[in-house]
UniProtKB/TrEMBL annotation:
InterPro entries: Acyl_CoA_acyltransferase, GNAT_dom. GO terms for molecular function: acyltransferase activity, transferring groups other than amino-acyl groups. This is N-acetyltransferase domain-containing protein. Residues 20-173 form the N-acetyltransferase domain. PROSITE patterns: GNAT (PS51186). Coiled coil: none annotated. It comes from Capsicum annuum. SUPFAM superfamilies: Acyl-CoA N-acyltransferases (Nat).
Amino acid sequence: MDETTRKSEGEKSEDKFTETTLRRIELSDVDDFMEWAADEKVSQFCTWDTYTCKDQALDFIKNIAIPHPWLRVICINNKAIGSVSVTPNSGCFDTCRAELGYVLAYKYWGKGIVTKAVKIVVSNIFQEWSNLERLEALVDIDNKGSQRVLEKAGFLKEGVLRKFKNIKGRSRDEVIFSFLSTDALQE
Ligand SMILES: CC(C)(COP(=O)(O)OP(=O)(O)OC[C@H]1O[C@@H](n2cnc3c(N)ncnc32)[C@H](O)[C@@H]1OP(=O)(O)O)[C@@H](O)C(=O)NCCC(=O)NCCS
């Protein structure tokens, strides 16, 4: 293969990922969902345990993901390859804030897909939820890829919350990031 051919194939594959879209999850996404939910590389920094069977996934999609206030699957050509969610603060007060979460199937990592998905969320969620002023994200101290996503999407790193979350039986330090409704959107 010559240099020109390699370059044009590379460009094509980059183009493919600029078509990243978000949509609501459906029960028929279950097999694609298992691609990331059953993968320990994906779940290692997440509070949920790695999925072991399709029934667990169907139960989650039906009872948690579909009724969730704001959960979308990240898609390439309408195939679900990950998800992104915004969960309102659970207290009666402080409806001004909500927490961002995301996950992507391993084979799609490192192509800018979640950064693109987060930018789409940030550019829409403050209009959709007029009370929302602060979108926050908590990231394991060792999850450098996720921290980089938030930096690229324009979030501000505010500090480290020590021993803040229990992940797979260990209390972990979490880096806290925020994006305010008044912050500048990134290109
Ligand atoms: C974290 C995750 C969402 C990133 O998604 P992604 O689509 O691969 O992210 P992007 O390609 O948009 O950006 C990743 C950035 O992190 C960087 N990165 C990845 N691993 C890194 C590491 N170990 N150290 C430093 N930077 C790293 C990449 O180089 C890239 O930055 P760059 O564009 O400046 O080169 C994905 O890896 C994932 O689903 N992980 C498992 C689930 C998870 O951790 N979710 C977040 C919980 S808070």
